[in-house]
Amino acid sequence: MTAGFIRISDTNIITHSFTTTIENWPSSFRAELFAIFLSLIISPYGCRVDINTDSQNSINIIQRIHNNPTFSIRDYFCLPNNNIIINNIVSIIKTKNLTLRFNKVKAHNNNYFNKRIDQECKITHYDSTPALVIKQQYFDNIQFIPQWGSIPIERKLRKFITDSSNIKNYFFFLHLPQNYKYKDVVDWNITLWILCNNDEKTETNFE
Question: Is 207 within the bounds of a domain?
């Protein structure tokens, strides 16, 4: 997964560009958030930053949290995903006293700069450059970050624990001697939902 940004002068000339590979929890939303985060890292203190992005989700979540002074660390861990990178974005905005102005760019609309950074990210995706790792100790408002192995959990914590527990129990159940012989004939997806007391799926089929 790759992320990147280009910096444009007031006369629409590209002055800088940067792309990198990033790890863990791949999604287009995460890549867009990471691109915004990278652009804020290089921004001078106390300046106004104009960000052009085709990700309306990124704009919405950053504005919602940044404009909410009561948003707590606990609230971050209730976000569906990408809570650490979102926290880092909001933290760096406040620390560097940045003023952000978002411009929504329509995706796949032949915007030159949007196409340019997409092309550069595609090239980076296939090179051998090591992934960029952000050292979390520079964002000390979160003192403890839950991890799964050595991977930070950047999803809603309660749901992650529930999902991982369900998967573990699923494989244990599937590999019981009396069940393993049915692994190819039972719709285990529906069966798992039933075992988790989900009332929306109430049948198991044999085909």
Answer: no
| Predicted confidence (pLDDT) per residue in 164-194, tens digit | 888 888 788 778 888 777 777 777 777 767 7
| Residue 8 to residue 13: CA distance in whole angstroms | 5
How many whole angstroms separate alpha carbon 19 and alpha carbon 117? 8
| 3-class DSSP state of 122 | helix
φ and ψ at residue 52, rounded to 5 degrees: -100, 120
Pair 135, 178 in one domain: no
Are 87 and 168 found together in one domain?
A: no
**95/140 same-domain check:** yes
Pairing of strands 99-104, 48-53: parallel
Q: Is the pTM of this model over 0.90?
A: no
- Count of structural domains within the chain: 2
Q: Is residue 103 a part of any domain in this protein?
A: yes
Q: Looking at the structure, tell me whether residues 31 and 88 fall in a common domain.
A: yes
**C-beta separation of 138 from 87 below 8 A:** no
The answer to the question of residue 117 being in a domain is yes
| Other Cβ atoms closer than 10 A to 146 | 14
121-170 residue pLDDT tens: 888 888 877 888 777 666 667 778 888 888 888 888 888 888 888 888 87
CA distances to 2, 14, 82, 91, 157 from 41, in Å: 17, 18, 18, 11, 27
